[in-house]
Specification:
The chain is an alpha+beta fold. The chain folds into two domains: 237 residues, Jelly Rolls (Sandwich), CATH 2.60.120.580; 70 residues, Endonuclease I-creI, CATH 3.10.28.20. It has five helices and 21 strands. The protein is globular.
Length: 339
């Protein structure tokens, strides 16, 4: 009479064991001086964390440019998290870019010719304030603003919007502006400012929680780094800054062996995204369209002719990046078009 309950208990235990075995490992990567390299991507940077494909990482990032502008704006020292102050004081090897980058993360088994998939599971804030700014020589129309300006915005914990000015409320939509892998060793140190085939400072506001970025791997382990937290941004980031802040979030990293990409790609829950990155905006447009055509030929088995025509009928081009030397364009195509 006791055999059936015992068997049920055994089966339940086996099921729990299977679920436990399948659960992803979760790692923590906080903002500390040891976890930050400031202003560059470089294959020589030693990894600070090693993970397997399918693992998740709780990652924190520090506001671009450091704490100087926050202090200029009069933010009380008590409001600035202590780990950010420790990084500001300890990390002196900086540049040429302005972004403190968290990482790099070594992904076991990653080799040149593979693709890294980065899923953004959740994104939140290390502090509930951020800044927007412009400076002489920066932004999309620098000659119109030959002086500097800083603006501090604060929001309540748990808020989904922030007041820009009386009568103007903006929806918060946090994302990591810079997500990339190390370039090949022979390229040396790359500035964190311009995006490229390694990913980097894509400044794509569509990469919020629930979206996925695909980046080609160039060195063993990929060496993934993340930074440049934004609370919100318009496409183009025309003043040269978003609502710059410090973020925390969870990512899931998956490795695709033998899947070679030329340029980063992405997905949101509703759209496929291809990217074009080039100093010339026209060429960036061309690259984004070519990448979408390649995607449709590879995944939907369309002819190049049909893929080109489908892009003309249904793909939308957006200027993602207009202020960091390299221009960014991304093409979006609705998933609802496909059964």
């Amino acid at each position: 009479m006791t055999r059936r309950p015992v068997m049920l208990a055994v089966l339940m235990m086996c099921g729990l064991a299977t679920l436990t075995a399948q659960a992803p490992r979760v790692h923590d990567l906080p903002v500390t001086p040891a976890n930050i390299h400031w202003g560059f991507y470089d294959a020589k940077v030693r990894p600070v964390l090693t993970i397997a494909s399918g693992d998740r990482v709780n990652v924190q990032t520090m506001i671009a440019g450091g704490l100087g502008r926050l202090r200029q704006l009069g933010v009380p020292e008590a409001d600035i998290p202590a780990p950010l102050k420790a990084v500001e004081q300890a990390v002196t090897d900086r540049g040429p870019g302005a972004h403190p980058m968290t990482g790099p993360i070594f992904v076991e088994g990653a080799e040149p010719g593979d693709t890294l998939e980065v899923r953004f599971l959740s994104i939140g804030y290390l502090h509930t304030f951020g800044l927007n700014a412009f400076a002489p020589g920066g932004g999309t129309i620098p000659d119109d603003f030959p002086y500097a300006k800083l603006k501090l915005l604060r929001w309540a914990p748990g808020a989904t919007s922030v007041e820009f000015a009386p009568g103007i409320t903006l929806p918060l939509a946090p994302f990591f502006g810079s997500v990339g892998v190390a370039p090949p060793p022979q390229t040396g140190r790359l500035s964190s400012r311009p995006p490229g085939w390694h990913g980097g400072n894509l400044d794509n506001k569509d990469l919020v929680a629930g979206s996925t970025l695909f980046v080609p791997v160039h060195v063993p382990g990929a060496l993934l780094s993340i930074g440049d937290g934004h609370a919100l941004q318009g496409h183009g980031e025309v003043s040269g800054t978003a609502l710059e802040t410090s973020l925390t979030g969870q990512i899931e990293v998956r490795l695709h062996k033998g899947r070679r990409l030329k340029w980063p790609r992405a997905e949101t829950p509703t759209h496929y995204i291809s990217m074009g990155l080039h100093e010339d905006l026209d060429e960036a447009n061309r690259l984004a369209v070519r990448e979408m055509i390649d995607f449709l030929v590879e995944t939907r088995k369309l002819s190049r002719d049909d893929a080109y025509m489908l892009c003309s009928l249904s793909a939308d081009l957006h200027v993602t990046q207009s202020v960091d030397g390299v221009k960014g364009v991304h093409a979006t195509l609705a998933k609802s078009l496909f059964r």
